[in-house]
Amino acid sequence: MTAAAIRQIVKWYAKRNIREHCPSKIADRLLGPRGPIHQEWSIGIVTGASPLRLRHAQGTANPVLTRYSVSDVRALFVADPFLIRVGNLWHMFFEVYNFDSDRGEIAWATSQDGFAWTYQKIVLRESFHLSYPYVFEWQGRYYMIPETHQAESVRLYEATTFPTDWVCTDILIQGHRFADSSIFMSDDRWWLFTETNPALAHDTLRLYQAPALRGPWEEHPLSPIIQANPHIARPAGRVVRDGHRLLRFAQDCFPVYGTRVRAFEITELTPSTYRERPASYGPLFGPSWRLWTQGGMHHVDAQQLNSHQWIAAVDGWRQVGWPIPEGWQRDRC
């Protein structure tokens, strides 16, 4: 790394510390007024010896997918990547924010090695916003639970032809604006974390449980298990098991949405009890000097390759002056 590059990195961290730790009036005087925050999200790949020790690998051309990778719609950003390996091929499902429909849609990309990705196409769209396409396999079938908060329900989709054709088969839960619902199985029982504050404060985590995938689902007696805490409530990716540890990832949405990712170890999970503790001393991911993550990071989907290696899809954002490219216009009635 050149001396000029090092100076730029030091300068970036200095400005970040001023913004985070100085009173806003002093920060504005030193750095100038802070303009409106427009987030441009991209997707990257990280690796490590455990889901708690993931790093940007040397030689990986991060970000691996950006809005410019999308070829079938006019995309404002890409985010919320989830991975699944079928045979020798990696599949990634993620949100594409379609400028023309003004909502999120679910896209698909493929990779032979997990590092170099090829965008394919949009595979799921609805009349409401879609994001966070939590994809998983169960008993030889492929399922997805995307975020559908505008529909005020948690919806289960099944692939009729994987990976391109999906149909909603079940409404698992209703009654809230569910955000980033994260399903997993533990001790022969299904569990689901989801964030539900309708004011988009990102501070309320609920827990649901069911004896079978399709239900019946009921809320845990201790739910909501987190309230009024935007640092640790909103889910930030797949719940994973690392040896004997069950880990959940949470978004830190302070001071703005999508700032950092934190990890928690679930130490007790029964139909009537729940306990967790921090799994790391600090955030796993957050703002960094890398251009595509200078604003923050808010998602990780970790997959175990072998006993000593993990790979994960992450996302990050940078602040842009205006998110809509010059010349783009929506059709008007």
UniProtKB/TrEMBL annotation:
PANTHER family, A to Z: ACETYLGLUCOSAMINYLTRANSFERASE (PTHR48261:SF2)
Span of domain Glucosamine inositolphosphorylceramide transferase 1 N-terminal: 40-316
MF-aspect GO terms: glycosyltransferase activity
SUPFAM superfamilies named among the record's database cross-references: Arabinanase/levansucrase/invertase
Superkingdom assignment: Bacteria
Protein name stated in the entry: Glucosamine inositolphosphorylceramide transferase 1 N-terminal domain-containing protein
InterPro entries per record: Exostosin, GINT1_N, Glyco_hydro_beta-prop_sf
